[in-house]
Design goal:
Blueprint (H helix, E strand, L loop, with lengths): L11 H14 L8 H14 L4 H8 L10
Pfam families: Phage_integrase
Organism: Ktedonobacter robiniae
Protein name: Tyr recombinase domain-containing protein
């Protein structure tokens, strides 16, 4: 999903480090895994009124019904 400046994928460890750095900058003290951030993002998009049809391709789920879970 993310591509580095060197046109390579970030490692799992690299993504975790970035998220930790951004969380600290935002004043978030709770530990947040990439999966929790992902869940938070899709929940927030739903609350903002974004349609499932627009969220589903980014979620990686095969159907819109799986977003409801």
């Amino acid at each position: 999903m993310f591509e580095s400046v060197r046109k390579r994928r970030y490692t799992d460890r690299g993504v975790r480090k970035m998220l930790t750095r951004y969380a600290q900058a935002a004043g978030i003290t709770r530990s947040m895994s990439p999966h929790k951030w992902r869940h938070f993002l899709f929940t927030w998009l739903k609350k903002e009124g974004i349609e499932d049809a627009l969220i589903q391709p980014y979620s990686g789920h095969a159907t819109r019904q799986s977003l409801e879970i």
